[in-house]
Amino acid sequence: MGLLRALAAAAALALPLAPVAWAGSPVLVELFTSQGCSACPPADEMLTELAKRDDVVALALHVDYWDYIGWKDGFAIPGHTARQKGYAKAAGTRMIYTPHMVVDGKDHVTGTKPAPVNALIEAHKAEAEAVDLSVEKTANGLRIRASAGAPLGREAVVQVLRYIPSRKVEIQRGENAGKTITYANIVSGWDYRENWDGAAPLDVNVPLAGKGPAVVIIQEAGYGPVLAVSRIH
């Protein structure tokens, strides 16, 4: 099914955001959001629902450029803003905004539109997997193994990040003053990055501190498409 047909089907059928059983490789959905953005709560709620699905790895990347309007987002990390700017540059634009979703590092959509988001998820699920990724816990961290079925078009970046599954925040100032919002899958740090050309299989051990969940992302360099993703609880 082409992307336009998928979008039309999703709009017509109002595909649910409910949990979906899925045995294949999940689709990465990144939401760039902020506690100081009045348009973001519906997108934050959508991400909370997406986080329940097996076929999606949903991540909230809180940005810092709304902090000046009266409320400092305690989850904001400057690196998230830099990542969003990197995506914008890769897409040929200089504009960044919230709420902004990026699906599998490739497709951009406003984070308050469930039908297009679901359509993009379904379209990416139907694509052939470029990289076979296996991740397992070890005594000190993670063992990451990957192989490419065909030569990679560009060098890939192997990344490991940590996230907070859920946190409730009472916002006292700014555009969302008086609201209590529950945020899901809040990215709290990027612990590891390594370049990989895909020519030989990858087999690395990555140390991790703490017991929180982690996500491994293999992504084309230059903020390109996501080639594989795996979550570890």
From TrEMBL:
Q: Which residues form the signal peptide?
A: 1-23
The UniProt record lists the keyword Signal? yes
By its UniProt entry, which Pfam families does this protein fall under?
A: DUF1223 (PF06764)
Task: List the InterPro entries hit by this protein, alphabetically.
Answer: DUF1223 (IPR010634), Thioredoxin-like_sf (IPR036249)
Write the record's keywords in alphabetical order, separated by commas. Answer: Signal
Q: Which domain of life is it from?
A: Bacteria
Q: What is this protein called?
A: DUF1223 domain-containing protein
Give the organism, scientific name: Brevirhabdus pacifica
